[in-house]
Amino acid sequence: MGLIPDVYLFALLAALFWGASPVLTKSGIVRGGTSLQGSLVVVAVGTICYFASLAVLGDVTDLLSLSPIAVLVFTSSGAAGAVAWMASFTGVDRVGASINSAGFNTHPLFATVIALLFLGEAMSLQTTFGIVVIVVGLTVVATSKGGDKAGWDIAELVFPLSAAAAYAVSNVVRRYGLTRTSVTTLEAITVNAIATLAALLVYAAVARDRQLVPPVDALRPFIWSGLLSAFALFFLFEAFARGSVAIVSALSGLSPVVATVVSAVVLTDIERVTLGIATGVSLVVCGATLITLA
Predict the structure, then answer these.
(1) With 0-12 CB in 10 A as exposed, 13-18 as middle and 19+ as buried, what is 143?
(2) Residue 142: partners with Cβ closer than 8 Å, 6 or more residues away
(3) pLDDT tens across 156-169, in order?
(4) Do 147 and 274 contact (CB within 8 A), yes or no?
(5) 25, CA 20 to 30 Å: which among 36, 45, 54, 225?
(6) What is the pLDDT of residue 238?
(7) DSSP for 176-202?
């Protein structure tokens, strides 16, 4: 019983940091940064944190002795993560932090679909109801007339939804690697982060985007966003080590609520948080929770 409070604490801390992170990302973009620059800075900060942690708590050279399948699996999850980062940051730019967080939190829906199509898992009545609630919530968000004050189109919801889909794929692959190989959690996160950063750099090279360093005014909020994201992942894994996946996923899934509240307080000149957004976000969180606990 003594460990139960720790489960709630770490899961809620993950939600808090993940909820606040996109608000800082939006702040950096408003100050002249781009989605790609933000993604690179945030992922680079996370990579440095994980690499430093591995150097202090373990042995960096252990990465060289990982099995080829472990490297392949976590490189693949990192590549999917790069897609999620880019799509999510573009969503923050286009529709706003609060609405993007709501769309991104549909990732349990995509994970369920992936499990249904590729693992043959049955879909329960509760899961089906959760999906319906998510769809209703997204509809309310889309018609809320809130979000980025510059205006946005419903079609731009494709960015947070694409981020959710890519994140779901990354999680499925990551889970496969953690259960089928002998890699440690810290080693897995480090390889995953390095692969994500490499994929983003490859994308920048292909896109011939040479403006990879954001303006000084945008760099600070991007760095803080990266630190919050790194801590969020750390707290998430600490929570998973102490409690069930269902409880941790449900509590950490409250991040859109945090993003909505923080946006309403911090981004008053940039975003409009309406009653419709608050209602839609709540429905999405409830739907995702139903799927998680099914």
Answers:
(1) exposed
(2) 154, 157, 280
(3) 889 999 998 998 88
(4) no
(5) 54
(6) 75
(7) HHHHHS---HHHHHHHHHHHHHHHHHH
The DSSP code sequence of the chain is -TTHHHHHHHHHHHHHHHHHHHHHHHHHHHTT--HHHHHHHHHHHHHHHHHHHHHHHS-GGGGGGS-HHHHHHHHHHHHHHHHHHHHHHHHHHHH-HHHHHHHHTTHHHHHHHHHHHHS-----HHHHHHHHHHHHHHHHHHTS--EETT---GGGGHHHHHHHHHHHHHHHHHHHHHHHS---HHHHHHHHHHHHHHHHHHHHHHTT----SPPHHHHHHHHHHHHHHHHHHHHHHHHHTTS-HHHHHHHHTTHHHHHHHHHHHH-TTTEE--HHHHHHHHHHHHHHHHHHH-
**CA–CA distance, 214 with 60 (Å, rounded to integer):** 30
Name which of 94-103, 129-138, 165-174, 251-260 the model is least confident about.
251-260
State the CB neighbour count (10 A cutoff) for residue 166.
22
Tokens representing 52?
A: 């430093």
Q: How far apart are CA 277 and CA 264, in angstroms?
A: 11
User: Which residue from 210, 164, 219, 174 is spatially nearest to 44, judged by alpha carbons?
Assistant: 219
Query: Distance between CA atoms of 61 and 71, rounded to whole angstroms?
Result: 14
CA distance 267 to 240: 32
Look up tokens 């919801």; give the residue.
Answer: 157
Distance CA 275, CA 283 (A): 12
Contact 256, 71 (CB under 8 A): no
Q: What is the pLDDT of residue 259?
A: 79
